Amino acid sequence: MQAQVGNNLSLNKRLAKECLDMIFNQHKPAQAVARYIGANYRQHNPNAPDGPQGVIAYAAGYLKANPELRMDFKRIIAEGDLVAVHSFLKPNSSDLGRAVVDIFRVQDGKLVEHWDVMQPVPLQAENKNGMF
User: Fold this and answer.
1) Domains contained in the chain, CATH given
2) CA torsion, points 110, 114, 120, 126, in degrees to nearest 10?
């Protein structure tokens, strides 16, 4: 029995990573949306609008403000129709960056819902474990 796309964990992980890579490393939000984002995309980040056009508008503004932006993927976890991508987001070479977790819901081979949490990388930490 073949797994349904929504429950194909390897494919779901690949979709999430490739979408984020295309947006934040290749700086191609419109192309990423066309390839990976579903028509009824639901956004939970309070700073970004719903829908595919909301992704493009938010990402384009973020990239314009941070033209050196890079995202380094640390781990990707999938369960059912959800994918969590833990990454190191660095706006520029002088910024310490942020630890980010993007969570997507996948349906019919497209990313259809998104949540995220961000935490700034501190100058000093209370332990030596690091954030990644």
Assistant:
1) 5-120 (3.10.450.50)
2) -100
